[in-house]
Write a structure and sequence with these properties.
- The chain is mainly alpha-helical.
- The protein has two helices and no strands.
Length: about 80
């Protein structure tokens, strides 16, 4: 049973900007920019203004919020809440 001809399906998909199923290969990568769906990759050169600003904010965050003893406080108290009664 065929609901529509292959030519009309190709014409409709071409009008929408889609490639026909026979033109696509399984596992093939699409355009390089579409992999990240509009997300920008973060520069890591360490010399440009964006990298210097990111490093500055990382340093500020580390100074204010990073607790070097966070994982050393591993005191676990096993007691019943009824012991205070």
């Amino acid at each position: 049973m065929e609901l529509s001809s292959q030519e009309s399906i190709r014409a409709l998909m071409g009008a929408c900007g889609m490639s026909a199923p026979s033109e696509r290969r399984r596992g093939a990568q699409s355009a390089p920019g579409s992999v990240h769906h509009g997300r920008k990759m973060r520069c890591k050169c360490g010399r440009c203004s964006q990298c210097l600003d990111n490093a500055r904010w990382e340093r500020i965050f580390t100074e204010k919020f990073a607790d070097p003893e966070y994982y050393t406080h591993q005191v676990i108290h096993y007691s019943s809440p009824l012991t205070s009664l």
